[in-house]
Amino acid sequence: MANYTQRLIIDTFNEMLDRMPFDKITVTALIKECQIGRNTFYYHYQDIYELLDEALAEWLEGHIESTSAQSWQDVAKAILYSCALHKKRIYNVYNSLSCDQICFYVFERISSTVSLYMEEYARITGGDTARAKMVSEMITYTLSGYFMRFLWNDMQDDIDDGIDKLGVIFDELIDSFDGGLGTDK
Q1: I need a labelling partner for 62 at 20 to 30 A (CA). Which of 7, 56, 83, 119 fits?
Q2: How many CB atoms are located within 10 Å of the residue 22 CB?
Q3: How many helices (H) and strands (E) are present in the chain, helices listed first?
Q4: Position 47 in a domain
Q5: Which residue segment(s) compose the domain that 109 sits in?
Q6: In a domain, 169, yes or no
Q7: Do 122 and 129 contact (CB within 8 A), yes or no?
Q8: Can you give the pTM of this predicted structure?
């Protein structure tokens, strides 16, 4: 749990992101709005990018955890809904010089979730872990591309419909490997 000063910094940072692009937010402007000293900021954060990482985690993880997500589809939907909930902030970061941080964060979150799912699937079915890894990577890259299109389409895509359709395709892909991720013949 963040202490009072960290909470103040994060809340002020979020308010500033609601008003301006990330690349226009400086530590100097942030500490002025927070009415704290420079050393206080640097006590809690190495730089503005570490603060951004924490803010991204809070926006996305908080929503994900509230859904008790169990599947990659639930996690993907939760991430997209959270992005839509924080649309102004997401675009103020995405349209700045550090848009790669959102993409990287989402890619890593999708990758870890899908990998865990596929590893468990291969373990339960006695399947080939190399195939599971390949399918996991295909799904991760597809979902990452879907996320980029979601941003390019101003977050107007039907999240449930899009992820559900991808789920059907991915289930067929998984099942196409000799009735699942079974062993090589």
Answers
A1: 119
A2: 24
A3: 9, 0
A4: no
A5: 52-175
A6: yes
A7: yes
A8: 0.75
